[in-house]
Each structure stands twice: as structure tokens, then as C-alpha cells.
Specification:
The chain is an alpha+beta fold. The protein has 20 helices and eleven strands. The chain is 56% helix and 12% strand.
């Protein structure tokens, strides 16, 4: 008998995958329909549609190539001259073209569009970013830094710099794009930037010359860089830090002196270049007031944390839908994989985690839109929920990608496809923009120095009164949070810090369920209601009891992905 592979296939003959991540994602479609103006949707729809197609198509191949052929440092040329050139695989530029075409930056910063969509600009831009990061989360970091650089220039930059640099950020021509970076950390401090020692000395032209080493410089090839340094070494801690705008090119056309020691050999996000840099009389402009550098840099960090959350959400969604599409056409032990109850219960869990994270991340984005529009209560809320959202989404994304990979079995572990790249990429998300412990301490500060926690409690209370079915559960859990918050604030410092983590985890759980309840309507109930039921049980019950899995059709409705 001759061998034939007609029946020996991994997937059924009629297997297929999504050709458009935007059109396939019913949860995203529903959210945008409910929460974006008709004018905003009309303007961004073509960009979202094209980005969704690119992310499902050509970006996927390009992203894998950029990951496999990571940037290289060319230290010297053939004459022995130091050139510090970063060379990328050609697909790097192609991926950047998709980013520019997505308008994730343009809709926020182009003057006419910014004015027209001022109250929803972050939601419009992050919708494109969410689709883009489903395929390429490595370059989503430079795009994040670019948006952050624009924010600092807009808030604190000189008018001449605004007029000269911002058009390179909102450009619709990728060849004109200037990307951004922040050179924050140093060897001796890491997350403790108050230990930084890079110096800045003023010259006769009121420019500064920076000297010292920066330890982790992501997007080292950026044209626009913001760096922290000290103008007076006698002023210690973060109070002594000032921030400086550094441009790759000096007005003379010469390169601003920055010596790249080496590129970081990272576990993931390999498509973009991170490096160790020595600054030697590097020219910078003071941005904002002297000694207020950390305060200014915070504006970039808060945006970076939101990008971190969106990347976590996107990567976890991609892992879930890769697994779902795979299992939809996989036969195991004589029947379709989705007919196995243990697979369905795991998909139910992963879908519930995604749905809860989705609405929380978009609530944080909305809070920033509202805060930037002058809403003080939303500003206070954002101060608290932004780090909370960053920590939770990052940690759960690692779990979700790992569990999705396991559901695919050995094929999920092989580098031919996207799952290993996703796994490596999400591992950085709990670390970047404040690791878990740093975030816990920041949430404690937010709780004591802002009214963010009180605003969150008001929101949960408001939602409780709009939903009779869940009112009792929400009110009981809210009462526990409020009561324990008073206890937490009065603990000795060590006990306060160690108790804060489980407390904030509980805050997150209750807040997520409240947001899901608020988002319930006739269309969304098929994915939100089972998520609410699953999460309430997961977060509330410690008793062993029989578990009835969702049906195959109910799982499909919960994942809410058409392909």
C-alpha cells in the first residue's frame, strides 16, 4: 500500500484563518460602535480595515522575519571610523509603513484631525494600535515612544521645536517619520531612577552637554530622544533630575555624539533595537523646568503604560484566536477538538480573561481621553487605574499565551508559526514601564495622593445601581474593598506594601466585573454574560463542586471571532 497524505493532515481540508483581524473581531467592532462617534468611525474605518487586513496578512510574514533577523550594530566602517549604524532587515521599513498608514499617530497629532477628534483621539489611535500589535508588538514599542515624545514636545517643548518636529510624527509619508525614545535607566539604579548619575552641563548657547551611560535604550535609532540627567550633583534623588531633548542630528548635519556600546540580546521584541549608550558631550535642550525632569518624564511613562496594556491585550487576543482557529479544524480522539469539554472550559477561561481585560484597558484609554479634555475626576481615576491595568493585563497576557500554546500542543511550540514569538514578546510586558513591585508601590502612592480609588469606587457603585441582578454582589464586594482600604492605609509600611498586592488584585477583579456588567446589551451578552458568570465564580468561590462546561456554540459566541 503506497503512502498517501490525503488523510494524514494536521487540520481538516477545509481549514481557514481570518483574512482581516478588524472585521473578524466582534468584540472590538461592538465596542467601537458604542463608544466612538459616527464621525470618528467614518474617518478611521478605512485605516482600521486596512490595518486589520495587513495584520492578518503580510505583516504576519514580515513580523516573523524581523524577529528572526534582528537589528545589527555596525560599529565601524572599512576605514576604521566609528559610525554606530543600526542595520535592519528590509521588512522593518515595511512594517513602519503599515504603522504610518494606520494613522495611529496621525489622528492624534495632525492639527486638523486633533481638533476634530480631540475628545476621542486616544481611542481612535489605540484601535489601530490594537490591530497592529496583534501582528507586530516589537515595533509597537518605538511607536509608543514616538507618541510619548510628541506628548512631551506638545506639553513642554518650545514653539520652534513643535513646528519643526511634530510634522515628522504625524506625517503620512513613512520616509519622513521621526521616531522617539526615552533614555531613562542607568546601571546603578534600574527602576530607581533617583540613583541616576548622568550629568548635564550648560554651555554659552544655553544648550547642555550630557555625559554618562544609559543602560537600556529602546529604539536606539530614534531621531527624537528624551533623557534624564543632573545639572547639579548635590541635588539628590528624583528631585535633582532634569530632562533634555536630544536629536540624532545636530543643526550642522553632524551626528549628535552617542556611542552605542552594544545591542541588547533580548528574549523577545527582537525586531527593534535596544542598546547600551555612552553619552559624551551629547547636545540636549532643557525641556520643562530644571529639576522637574522626572515630573515631565512621567507624562511619557503614563502613556507608555497604556501602550503596554494594549500590547498585552493584543498579543493575548492573537494567541487565543490562533488557538481557536486551529482547534476549530483539528480532530482529536475521533471528534472535533472543540467537542472535548476540557478544551471548552479552558477556552472559556481564556475568553473570560480577554473580555475582562478588553473592557478595562479601553476604560483606561477613555479615562485618558477625558482627562486630556479637562475632566478632573477622570484624571484622578486614570492616575489609579492606569498602573492597575498595566500590571494585570501584562501578567495575564503571559498566562494566556502560555495556555493557548499548550492547547495547540507540540505545533504551538514550533518556531515556524507565531505562538513562540508571542510567548517571547509578552514576557517583557510585566517588566517594562514598571515591574510588578514598582507598580504596586505606585498604586499605593496613587491611592494616598489622589482620589483615584474613590473615583473607582463611585463608578462601581453607580454601575451596581443600574443592574438589579448584580447589585448585591457588587455592593458586598465594594463594601469589603472600602473597609479594607482604611485598614491598609493604617498598617506599618512593610505590612502595607506586602498587603497591597492582594488588595489591588481584588480591586481589579471587582472593577473588571463591574465594567462588564455596564457593557452588557443584547448584542454583547453572548460573550459578556458567560464571562461575568465565570469570573464571579473564579474570584469568589473556594468550594469544590461540579462544573458544567459551555456548549461548543456558546464557546464560539464567547470568543466572538468570525473567520
Amino acid at each position: 500500500m503506497k503512502y498517501s497524505d490525503t488523510k494524514n493532515k494536521v487540520l481538516q481540508t477545509d481549514s481557514r484563518v481570518s483574512q482581516d483581524f478588524f472585521s473578524s473581531d466582534l468584540i472590538l467592532q461592538h465596542y467601537l460602535k458604542r463608544n466612538i462617534t459616527a464621525q470618528g468611525r467614518q474617518y478611521m474605518q478605512p485605516a482600521w480595515k486596512q490595518t486589520g487586513k495587513d495584520a492578518a496578512g503580510k505583516m504576519n510574514e514580515w513580523s516573523l522575519l524581523a524577529d528572526k533577523f534582528s537589528p545589527q550594530l555596525i560599529k565601524r566602517n572599512h576605514l576604521g571610523e566609528t559610525i554606530n549604524e543600526i542595520r535592519f532587515h528590509p521588512v522593518y521599513d515595511e512594517l513602519m509603513k503599515v504603522a504610518v498608514a494606520s494613522e495611529m499617530l496621525r489622528v492624534k497629532w495632525e492639527p486638523f484631525l486633533r481638533k476634530k477628534f480631540d475628545t476621542e483621539k486616544h481611542r481612535l489611535g489605540f484601535a489601530s494600535g490594537y490591530l497592529y500589535a496583534m501582528s507586530e508588538s516589537g515595533q509597537y514599542c518605538p511607536l509608543c515612544m514616538t507618541d510619548g515624545a510628541a506628548r512631551l514636545i506638545d506639553l513642554f517643548g518650545k514653539e520652534e521645536d513643535k513646528q519643526r518636529l511634530l510634522p515628522h510624527i504625524y506625517t503620512d509619508n513613512a520616509n519622513d517619520l521621526y521616531t522617539g525614545a526615552m533614555f531613562l535607566t542607568e546601571k546603578r539604579g534600574g527602576s530607581d531612577v533617583g540613583a541616576n548619575i548622568v550629568s548635564a552641563i550648560k554651555d554659552k548657547k544655553k544648550l547642555y552637554h550630557l555625559n554618562g551611560e544609559k543602560w537600556f535604550c529602546s529604539n536606539v535609532n530614534a531621531e527624537i530622544i528624551f533623557a534624564l540627567a543632573r545639572t547639579d550633583e548635590t541635588v539628590e534623588g528624583t528631585k535633582g533630575l532634569s530632562i533634555f531633548l536630544i536629536e540624532k542630528q545636530l543643526p550642522s548635519g553632524e551626528r549628535n555624539p552617542m556611542d552605542i556600546i552594544r545591542l541588547k540580546d533580548k528574549l523577545g521584541v527582537r525586531s527593534m533595537a535596544s542598546a547600551e549608550i555612552i553619552l559624551t558631550d551629547t547636545v540636549g535642550k532643557l525641556t520643562g523646568k530644571e529639576f522637574e525632569g522626572f515630573k515631565v518624564m512621567t507624562e511619557m511613562i503614563i502613556l507608555s503604560r497604556l501602550y503596554n496594556s494594549v500590547a498585552a491585550l493584543s498579543c493575548a487576543r492573537r494567541a487565543l484566536i490562533e488557538t481557536y482557529q486551529y482547534l476549530s479544524f483539528r480532530e482529536l480522539f475521533g471528534k472535533n477538538a472543540l467537542q472535548h469539554s476540557l478544551i471548552r472550559i479552558k477556552l472559556t477561561e481564556l475568553a473570560a480573561l480577554h473580555i475582562a481585560n478588553f473592557y478595562m484597558v479601553w476604560r483606561a484609554i477613555t479615562a485618558l481621553d477625558n482627562a486630556d479634555s479637562g475632566n478632573e475626576e477622570e484624571k484622578q481615576l486614570f492616575r489609579f487605574i492606569n498602573p492597575l491595568t498595566k500590571k494585570w493585563s501584562a501578567e495575564t497576557s503571559v498566562y494566556m499565551v502560555r495556555e493557548s500554546m499548550e492547547l495547540m500542543g507540540g505545533n504551538g511550540y514550533i518556531e515556524d508559526a507565531v505562538m513562540p514569538k508571542l510567548m517571547r514578546d509578552v514576557m517583557v510586558l510585566p517588566i517594562w514601564e514598571g515591574s510588578g513591585n514598582v507598580i504596586v508601590l505606585d498604586m499605593l502612592r496613587a491611592m494616598t495622593k489622589s482620589n483615584g480609588f474613590e473615583m473607582l469606587c463611585k463608578e462601581i457603585e453607580r454601575i451596581a445601581f443600574t443592574n438589579a441582578e448584580n447589585k448585591k454582589w457588587l455592593q458586598e464586594n465594594l463594601s469589603l474593598l472600602i473597609s479594607f482600604a482604611d485598614t491598609l492605609k493604617n498598617l506599618p509600611q512593610d505590612e502595607m506594601e506586602t498587603t497591597a498586592k492582594p488588595f489591588f488584585d481584588k480591586v481589579t477583579e471587582v472593577f473588571q466585573i463591574a465594567l462588564l456588567i455596564e457593557a452588557l446589551d443584547e448584542e454583547s451578552k453572548v460573550w459578556i454574560q458567560p464571562a461575568v458568570d465565570f469570573l464571579k465564580e473564579k474570584y469568589s468561590s473556594d468550594k469544590l463542586k461540579a462544573i458544567k462546561p459551555l456548549s461548543t456554540e456558546e464557546v464560539k459566541e464567547m470568543i466572538a471571532w468570525e473567520f
